[in-house]
From TrEMBL:
Protein name listed in UniProt: Cinnamoyl-CoA reductase 1-like
Keyword annotations from UniProtKB, A to Z: NADP, Oxidoreductase
UniProt source species: Cucumis melo
Domain of life of the source: Eukaryota
SUPFAM superfamilies: NAD(P)-binding Rossmann-fold domains (SSF51735)
Ranges for domain NAD-dependent epimerase/dehydratase: 13-244
GO biological process, one term: lignin biosynthetic process
Molecular function as annotated in GO: cinnamoyl-CoA reductase activity; oxidoreductase activity, acting on the CH-OH group of donors, NAD or NADP as acceptor
PANTHER family: CINNAMOYL-COA REDUCTASE 1 (PTHR10366:SF404), NAD DEPENDENT EPIMERASE/DEHYDRATASE (PTHR10366)
Length: 330
């Protein structure tokens, strides 16, 4: 079935941090659907943004703007005249000094959105703003009403979750103050095939087990979701008039032991760890969560095994992972 592009032809949207892992797929999806896209990047001529120019429809409907989240005027130039904004740019860091940047950057985007009178802003947040709470009972189902405990994030030096939480809170504050229609997507760890050349932080999570640099796996659980699904979720909440509030976005939770087992079954040629670094404590259990809110909009998720398979294939194709000898043609 051809995609119905009648509704969006002529609609202009801005994607901040357009060269990123999630953002690149989002730009691809938006172009496929007929949107005119303005992407903000640090330097439009940088080779690391070349993949965006090669996307279908990019020649006709993609323009890259040089913008810095801390430079309000550069954001203003990209956002003025847009119907919608996808704010995906954020420092992925555990550096406490970057916290302020994430907050200021978000406030700048929201303020520019208000000035441009956009229809809706979709903000890429994280599960890190939702689940970090030491007082939550194991029986509590984590849903969109849950917020991470800032003091706990600070005390455990989890600056990434702290920064994301502060930034999301800032987005809601400005939205309320300036009457902006804001919808937030909260994905868990994002995997899947890469459009960009460089390896992003979340894909390294899998790569370290395949290169042999991780000799053991930790006693921890993690939720995973496919990057294409995260991009799809952004578009879904943007295009559904009734969408509001926050949306948790995850396919399934795995213990790190289950993750390496899936990798070993799919790619037995690699030196995967077989031992847990913690042989004393019982195996960590996943917390309960719900994605009913996103599913109620019609969201369907890619099975996690397929996502893991495509992630590794992508690492091989881009030359980040050596091909196992059995795959090399003699």
């Amino acid at each position: 079935m051809p995609i119905d592009t009648t509704a969006v032809s002529g609609e202009i949207v801005c994607v901040t941090g357009a060269g990123g892992f999630i953002a690149s797929w989002l730009v691809k999806l938006l172009l496929e659907k007929g949107y005119t896209v303005r992407g903000t990047v640090r330097n439009p001529d940088d080779q690391k943004n070349a993949h965006l120019r090669n996307l279908e429809g990019a020649k006709e409907r993609l323009s890259l703007f040089s913008a810095d989240l801390l430079d309000f005027e550069s954001l203003q130039a990209a956002i003025m005249g847009c119907h919608g904004i996808f704010h995906t740019a954020s420092p992925v860091t555990d550096d406490p000094d970057k916290v302020e940047q994430a907050i200021i950057g978000t406030k700048n985007v929201m303020t520019a959105a208000a000035e441009a009178n956009v229809r809706r802003v979709v903000f890429t947040s994280s599960i890190g703003t939702v689940y970090m709470n030491p007082n939550r009972s194991p029986d509590t189902v984590v849903d969109e009403s849950c917020w991470s405990d800032l003091e706990f994030c600070k005390n455990t030096k989890n600056w990434y979750c702290y920064a994301k939480t502060k930034a999301e809170q800032a987005a809601w504050e400005v939205a309320k103050e300036k009457g902006i229609d804001l919808v937030v997507v909260n994905p868990m760890l994002v995997l899947g095939p890469m459009l960009q050349e460089g390896v992003n932080a979340s894909v390294v999570h899998i790569m370290k087990y395949l290169t042999g640099s991780a000799k053991t796996y930790v006693n921890a659980v993690q939720g995973y979701v496919d990057v294409k699904d995260v991009a799809k979720a952004h578009l879904l909440v943007y295009e559904t008039p009734s969408a509001s509030g926050r949306y948790i976005c995850v396919e399934s939770m795995l213990h790190r032991g289950e993750l390496v087992e899936i990798l070993a079954n799919l790619f037995p040629q690699y030196p995967l760890p077989t031992k847990c670094s913690d042989e004393v404590n019982p195996r960590k259990k996943p917390y309960k969560y719900t994605v009913e809110k996103l599913k109620s909009l019609g969201m369907e998720f890619t099975p996690i095994k397929q996502c893991i398979y495509e992630t590794v294939k992508s690492l091989q194709e881009k030359g980040h992972l050596p091909l196992p000898t059995s795959q090399i043609q003699h």
